[in-house]
Design goal:
With about 450 residues, the chain is an all-alpha fold. The N and C termini lie far apart (about 60 Å). About 55% of the residues are buried. The longest helix is centred in the middle third of the chain and has 36 residues. It has a two-stranded parallel sheet.
């Protein structure tokens, strides 16, 4: 008889998969890379979620290629922060949540935990809406019904009970490949102006001059650099069993950094492809108010001249919407174990996160109507951006502390770069809040 698990189980419970994948220091480089590869990919799916779609589609339709440089800058910022995260995990043996519990008093660490949990819920709201929208577009299901169906992804968590962490990474690889192939075909169909694309990667003042562009730029930042991913990455890199000594740790950091940079470069290409598609298919044809994903879906066929474009769009959206089933569950367990020393069955954690996401999703759709999905998605990404400094601050401090990191502590240039990024993100969030308050 089937019984629900009563304890936290692999592969979603970090402590159950810690050190479960051995690294052979004597193996050839390519074999070591293959063994290390995976955590970066798992983190990268959070950078391709439906929240990214909403911000990138609206940015492309309103401003053409002008905000492509924001996508690039946000991705570079993500690479820096995720690299710091993996270094913390591999060197200290602690994830970011555990390190915060060790180093900070309750008055500091509890607000940090609350902020991180809010980030997970905001991200899951985007996943719920994205999954519901994909089901609506592909199968004609109502959005409210689709939101209800999205709650059933807990079955996936139960189905993987007791599996190894490599199985999760293999599923994520399949999702990422699905999204990437779908967008590659769509770009071939729309035929972008590559000279205009290249110009879009050059920084410009559009985000400063136009309040809507600033809101979208902040949304792109929040959709790209996800706060809970910093906690997640510092934990899942510890699924690799690294040898003792500085040389072994240095090699693990180098290989894990390659895994992260390659995976986040793929995420950058997907996000850029979404914006380029919107700029080419909509902005260039005078459709400059495409703020809803469903509008983009219905406009693609007549503009591209092929029904396969919208089908690929819907399939990629469904794959993106399912990504949080894995990252949200694992990140939630990381936070609870690290901050609270609390372990609960993974399906209960998944249900709790999904319930907290379903409530604002249902209320938003009932209050604003089914045509407001795009606005709700962008709002969820802005919430993520507002939470980001609260994850960056402890990460930068801890990775710069020689008592925690020893010889691997951030050097002067890395500290300066990281704190400069923190100041920039905080200032951008402050400018957004001021613009919202002022009008």
């Amino acid at each position: 008889m089937f019984r629900l698990p009563t304890t936290a189980t692999a592969p979603f419970c970090p402590s159950e998969v810690h050190g479960s994948i051995a690294l052979d220091a004597g193996a050839p480089l390519w074999k070591r890379l293959m063994r290390v590869a995976g955590p970066g990919l798992l983190v990268s799916v959070g950078y391709m979620d439906p929240g990214n779609w909403a911000t990138d589609i609206e940015a492309g339709s309103r401003f053409g290629h002008a905000l492509l440089w924001v996508v690039l800058a946000s991705s570079l910022a993500a690479m820096l922060l995720q690299t710091l995260s993996l270094r913390l995990g591999l060197v200290s043996g602690l994830d970011l949540a555990q390190a915060c519990r060790t180093r900070y008093r309750p008055a500091v660490r509890l607000p940090l935990w609350v902020m991180a949990e809010l980030a997970i819920v905001a991200c899951d709201v985007a996943e719920v809406l994205g999954t519901a929208l994909a089901l609506h577009l592909l199968f004609g299901m109502s959005l409210l019904a689709g939101v209800g169906v999205a709650a059933l992804d807990t079955v996936i968590v139960l189905g993987l009970k007791g599996r190894g962490f490599r199985q999760v990474e293999a599923i994520i690889l399949g999702l990422v490949m699905t999204i990437g192939v779908c967008y590659a075909v769509q770009l071939v169909l729309v035929g972008p102006d590559w000279a205009a694309v290249a110009r879009g990667f050059v920084p410009n003042g559009v985000a400063v001059q136009d309040p809507k562009a600033l809101l979208l730029a902040i949304g792109i930042l929040g959709a790209t650099v996800m706060p809970h991913n910093l906690y997640l990455h510092s934990s899942i890199v510890q699924t690799r069993r690294v040898g003792q000594g500085s040389a072994a740790r240095r090699d693990a950091i180098r290989l894990s950094t390659i895994d992260t940079l390659v995976s986040l470069t793929l995420a950058l290409m997907v996000n850029a492809a979404i914006l380029i598609l919107a700029a080419t298919a909509f902005h260039a044809h005078g459709h400059r108010e495409v703020t809803e994903i469903q509008d983009a879906y219905h406009l693609l066929d007549p503009l591209v001249g092929s029904s396969i474009a919208s089908i690929l769009f819907g399939v990629a959206l469904l794959a993106a919407g399912q990504s949080s089933t894995f990252t949200g569950t694992i990140a939630g367990q990381v936070l609870m174990e690290g901050f609270l020393r609390l372990k609960i069955p993974c399906w209960q954690r998944r249900l709790a996160t999904r319930f907290l996401a379903l409530v604002p999703a249902f209320i938003g759709l009932l209050w604003l109507g089914e045509s407001a999905v795009g606005r709700l998605l962008v709002a969820s990404q802005v919430v993520l951006s507002l939470q980001l400094p609260f994850a960056m601050w402890p990460l930068i401090r801890l990775t710069g502390d020689r008592a925690v990191m020893g010889e691997f502590a951030n050097g002067p240039w890395l500290r300066g770069l990281a704190w400069g990024l923190f100041a920039l993100v905080t200032a951008a969030n402050g400018a957004l809040l001021w613009s919202l308050i002022a009008g």
